[in-house]
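Retro notes (design track)

What went well: tokenization of the new backbones is finally stable.
What didn't: we kept losing track of which sequence belonged to which structure.
Fix going forward: every design gets posted as structure first, then sequence, in one message. First example under the new rule, 328 residues:
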């Protein structure tokens, strides 16, 4: 991602003497390329690789020509969490929108399918053993969405589904002492929920204040706000427009591969969601082999000044993309 996000990862990956990221294949589930004839059941790997850019740390590059409108790859989130305002209207696992419920059901957690219910066990079995009233209240009253992702990750770690350092691969934002103090209340409430539920000490050992803030520092600049385009959009342009006009976010999610895309105010790649939190990366125009693929982290319709301000304050870098350099 941005210049100042990549220092430690850069050195870490360089030490591995690898230009391609080892997690690339793991977190990428499909590509548009038709499977080759020898192995029709296995999709070809997506036409991209992760490498280092001249000035912005790691980035994603095309390994062959990609045509405008092509689906480059899809990506499943490491974890996703519904917004508190939509929590009873979307699947608690994949964030798919659900038909309006009867009043009697409206206060309960819902899943869109048996499959999602089954998959959610990695966090839900642990989550349901604790009382989240105080923690959820804290998020609701302060309008916080990211601590909910930390809670979900903590439950996944406790169930043994993922390791506590799973997000270390993502670059963190730098935190001021004030920001760390602000996070204290959330940490205390999370820890308290687990302690009161009498989990074994060794299971909650990872849950230190340092872990909580380090995870939050990564989630803050790597989480994607999920807005479902909805319906079926074959036409790329209509999908791009639809995502701008989409209703309020259904939730937030964290991915590995999509986080490796650098930003551009005039991007050649678009990240979008159709029916759930599975991300789709699509080419907005023809991309040549070797060209870097970039997405726009913010609303492309904003003015130069607004874009520079948000990218600097929210993501910690000054944008020097071609569009910004041209003063547009
Ligand atoms: Zn679902
Ligand atoms: Zn720019």
């Amino acid at each position: 991602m941005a210049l100042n996000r990549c220092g430690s990862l850069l050195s870490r990956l360089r030490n591995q003497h690898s230009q391609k990221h080892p997690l690339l294949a793991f977190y990428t589930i499909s590509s548009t390329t038709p499977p080759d004839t020898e192995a029709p059941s296995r999709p070809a790997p997506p036409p991209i690789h992760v490498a280092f850019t001249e000035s912005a740390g790691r980035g994603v590059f095309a390994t062959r020509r990609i045509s405008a409108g092509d689906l480059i790859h899809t990506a499943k989130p490491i974890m996703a969490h519904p917004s508190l305002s939509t929590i009873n209207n979307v699947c608690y696992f994949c964030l798919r929108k659900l038909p309006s419920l009867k009043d009697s059901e409206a206060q309960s957690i819902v899943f869109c399918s048996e499959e999602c219910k089954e998959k959610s066990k990695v966090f839900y079995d642990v989550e349901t053993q604790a009382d989240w009233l105080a923690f959820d209240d804290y998020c609701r009253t302060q309008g916080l969405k990211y601590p909910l992702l930390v809670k979900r990750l903590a439950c996944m770690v406790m169930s043994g589904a993922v390791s506590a350092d799973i997000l270390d691969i993502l670059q963190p934002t730098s935190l001021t002492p004030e920001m760390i103090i602000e996070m204290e209340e959330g940490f205390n409430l999370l820890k308290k929920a687990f302690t009161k539920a009498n989990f074994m000490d060794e299971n909650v050992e990872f849950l230190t204040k340092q872990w909580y803030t380090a995870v939050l520092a990564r989630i803050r600049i790597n989480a994607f706000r999920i807005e479902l385009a909805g319906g079926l959009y074959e036409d790329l342009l209509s999908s791009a427009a639809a995502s701008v006009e989409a209703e309020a976010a259904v939730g937030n999610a964290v991915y590995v591969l999509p986080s490796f895309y650098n930003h551009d105010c005039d991007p050649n790649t678009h990240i979008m969601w159709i029916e759930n939190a599975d991300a789709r990366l699509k080419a907005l125009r023809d991309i040549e082999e070797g060209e870097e693929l970039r997405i726009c982290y913010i609303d492309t319709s904003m003015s130069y000044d607004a874009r520079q301000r948000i990218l600097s304050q929210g993501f910690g870098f000054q944008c020097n993309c071609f569009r910004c350099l041209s003063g547009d």
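Added context from the reviewer: The pocket of zinc ion (ligand 1) is lined by residues 91, 93-94, 96, 111-113, 116 (CB under 6 Å).
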